[in-house]
Structure formats: C-alpha cells, structure tokens
Amino acid sequence: MTRSLPSRPGLAGTALASVGLLALTACGSGVSEPEEDGEGSAGAERTVVENCGREIELSAAPEAIVGLSPSQTELLLRLGLRDRMAGQAQTATAPLPEDLRAEAEDIPVLSEDAPPTREVLLEAGPDFVAAPTAYEFTAEQGFASVEQLEQAGVAAYIATGGCADRRMTGTVDDLFTDLEALGQALGVEEAAAGLTEEARATLEDVDERVADQEPLTVAQVYVEGSTLSAIGAGIEYDIIRRAGGENVFGPQDAAFADFFAAQINPETLAERDPQALVFAVNSPEHEEATRDYLTRTFPELDAVRNDRLVSISASDVYPGTLGNVDAVAEVAEGLYPEAF
C-alpha cells in the first residue's frame, strides 16, 4: 500500500520519527475539577491536569501555546487553537497534512530539525507547550526542562504514550487520554470530544473489518541506508495489534527488554519470515529507498514474494498524535485489502 505523505483531511477517511529512537515515555494524564479553597468556599477556579506522574495547575485557559513537534502542532490546530498558537517546532522532521499547511504558515517556527533551545522557546513567550515525548525537555541537550518551564510560568504537557515510564507500553488508546486532558486544560472540550468520537469510530470500523480475517504475521521495521531496525514494543507495536496483525517481534524478545526498537541483522528478520512488512518513512524518497532495500535484501521473504509491504508515515507513530489512528487503518487496509 502506498500513501502520499501525509494527507489527512480527517480521521474518517479510511483510514519513527526517524528512528532517531528516543528512549523516553508514564503514568497517564487526567483532569480534576476546579477546587475550593481551604475554607470550603468557592476559590479561584483552576484546572489540574495529571501528566507523567505530576500535576499541571492552570488558573486560566492558556493563550500562547507551542507545539514542539508537527504531530502536536497538528493536534492543536485540529482542536481549533490556531489563534492561540505562539510557535511550532521541529518543522523539518515531518510535513503537516496538506489541509493544515496554509493555516500554519504564519505560526512562528522556533526550530526545524531538533527541539528549540531553552532561550528560543522562552523568547516566544508561551504559557503552554505540548510535546510527544520527554526528550523535548532534556536540559542536557540545551532544551528547557519541565522544571525550568514551570519556574518561568509555562505549563509543559507530554503525550501520555511519550512519558518516560510508558514509552515501552504505550497504546493507541493513550491518544484519548491526551484529548480529554488537553480539551479541558485548553478550554476546547467540545472540539476534543469531536476528535475522540471520530477516532473511536475509525478504530471500531477497523475492528469490524478485520474481525474475521486470518491474522497475518507482521514485522515492523525501519531502514536507514543499509541499517535495519525492528520495532518490538510501545505504540508502534500496538498499532500492528490494533490492525489485526501478529507481531513477530515483541516485548518478550530480549532485544526489546529495555527499548522499543533494536538494530537487527537481515538473518534475524529472514528467520521470522513475516507474511507482511510494515515500515515507517519520512518522505516519498525514503519510501522508495526502503522498498528497494527490502526487495533486494529479502527476495525469498514471504512478505516480499506476496508484495505485502505497507508504508506508513513516520510522523504517525509519534505518541499523542491523531496519526496513530490513521496508521492503524492504513496498516489494516494494507494487510487485508479485501476487507476494505
């Protein structure tokens, strides 16, 4: 299955970030109701969001929001927050869906290939930033840490599936935790509920279509030059499961005991002989190069002989993105085209 990268007018259509493999992801997120003061009388209303084992307290809906990756920028735009966005980051790592590009043109670009430095981020004057993983807040890399942002009065939200303790066990359903939390924290509950309803409908449609299919064995790989990596845990693993496939690599394998991806040699993949291969790509050129590598290297692999090579956008496997749902639908259609 070939996909134009990316073109998501919405989730209803049937529907690794460059495995620069970030070992980061915890506790989920949630929202508590406005609290009263110690006297029991109504105090100032505040929203408390539980995120990655900590609490984010908001006294008012944020008005200067930054998406620290294209996946989060997309989510914020689809929540209707264009007029409240103070910046977007890592813009060169993945293009926004075509229907959002014009809308994002005037949003200040804070960085292209990596998260913005602490100085650049703070200079943009945000009061709320959203990121796919904890990596975007690594002070050792020169980025603003969560603690530094809090000291500056900036709330930092990490996608549930990207929390440090959850990167290995994240699921597609973590997106719904994020939508609920962001909807209330940013005052866009109705928009968040609409996206949730649409996403759940897509997943339910996939469930119905693949329910009677004989499951195919699947390996999810990432190819960079001649380096071959396999995915065996995290949201990426769950995407294959939700699409009706059986992962040939998984958390039970020693290679994935501590990290969701691992470099493998071609012999390891050949031994598993999956019936289908799913691979994440960053551009049409990357897709072409990956297909060429797989067909040349594994001519006898069942997946290659039967032309079951399914490409998905690398941006769709970031934690906390609507693309997780798209990826499920695209993989399912690639595995079982007769059901779509």
How do the helices and strands line up, and which of them pair or pack?
Elements: E1 29-32, E2 47-51, E3 54-58, E4 65-67, H1 70-78, E5 85-88, H2 98-104, H3 118-123, E6 128-131, H4 146-151, E7 155-158, H5 174-185, H6 189-210, E8 217-224, E9 227-231, H7 234-242, E10 246-247, E11 261-263, H8 266-272, E12 276-281, H9 284-297, H10 302-305, E13 309-313, H11 323-335
Parallel strand pairs: 4-5, 4-6, 6-7, 8-10, 8-12, 12-13
Antiparallel strand pairs: 1-2, 2-3, 8-9, 9-11
Helix pairs in contact: 5-6, 6-11, 7-11
Protein name: ABC transporter substrate-binding protein
InterPro entries: ABC_Transporter_SBP, ABC_transptr_periplasmic_BD
Family: Belongs to the bacterial solute-binding protein 8 family.
Description:
The chain is an alpha/beta fold and 340 residues long. It has two domains: 29-200, Nitrogenase molybdenum iron protein domain (Rossmann fold), CATH 3.40.50; 210-339, Rossmann fold, CATH 3.40.50.1980. Helices cover 32% and strands 17% of the residues. It is built from eleven helices and 13 strands. The strands form three sheets. Strands 8, 9, 10, 11, 12 and 13 form a six-stranded mixed β-sheet that branches. Strands 5-4-6-7 form a four-stranded parallel β-sheet. Helix 1 (70-78) links the parallel strand 4 (65-67) and strand 5. Helix 5 runs antiparallel to helix 6 (189-210), helix 6 packs parallel to helix 11 (323-335) and helix 7 (234-242) crosses helix 11 (323-335). It is globular and about 60 Å long. The chain starts with 28 loop residues before the first strand and ends in a 5-residue tail after the last helix. Residues 1-27 and 31-43 have low confidence and may be disordered. This is ABC transporter substrate-binding protein. It comes from Streptomyces boetiae.
